[in-house]
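Do me a favour: review this protein, sequence plus structure tokens, and tell me how the chain folds. Record follows.
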Amino acid sequence: MRVAFPLLSLGKFGGVRKILEIANGLVDFGYEPTIIYPEGRGDTPFHIRREVIRRTVPGRNRLSALLRYASMLREYDVVVANFWPTAYLYPFSRRMLYFVQDVESRFYSNPILKGAAALTYRLPIEKITYNPALARAVGARHVIPAGVDKSVFYPDPDPHMRRAERVLMYMPRRERRKGLDIFREAMEILSGCCDLEIWLVGGPPVGGLPFPTRRFIPENDAALRRLYSSADLFVLTSRSEGLGFPVMEAIACGTPVVATAVDGAEVWSFPGVRVVNVSPEQVAREIRRVLEDPESFRRHAAESRALVPDVREMVKGFSEVLHAHLSAL
């Protein structure tokens, strides 16, 4: 069975990681997955199995790439739309599933783009996601386990990385919905609380924090795993997330988490995750609690690791939806 994933990039995005993990895993269920993407946008830090077919199209921009996709999708038994513009290809496919990883209309202030993204959730396409809250928001019928590759993310601390008594890990992002301003305010509240170092992983440089900081751009998943594992705490301060997979990756590495109550909180309600309202004061209070007793919270995180679904469960769920979708037609 031939399954196509039309992508607009293979860049270093969490959503791309999940699509490639699913494409890789579907090989073991007898599918023939193909990832399609524009020329010049195929550089990726993520693993792609050799059995997964890679197909490129020329295209100066996203629109020209989408037009080329439209002429080739009927070659496949099923097309899996992902980023919202690819859902508009459904008239040009034999069958389509829409893999929704976030409410992408939230990404935009431009009313035209916001409306165009929101309209895709009303198209006559079966939708699949890994978050019950997200399923309710977009009307998805199918919810599969949200899995993390535990062969990649597991406890692997490097004590030589640490320069302070306590280490907090954070992934800064520019978008307002990611809550960097909330993190800044929480750090100001905690100013002078303890011997704390902040590890800023990926994203833009961030200055002006009241604690010593180090910036890391991990070259691969092994480097990211060691960062998660070596920190005392991982913090997420988003206002909105499709799920928040870094929370689950941190728990898989045995590291406690303080996270704001985004849609993903329903999925990662583990003992090792302290979920708080989107408030700098509450974020700061929970960070203080964890840093005052890191060993207790690390034990909670270790207990939580077994509760995190493996990526194989996610792929199995996706395969079952594919099979049911094809059998019903």
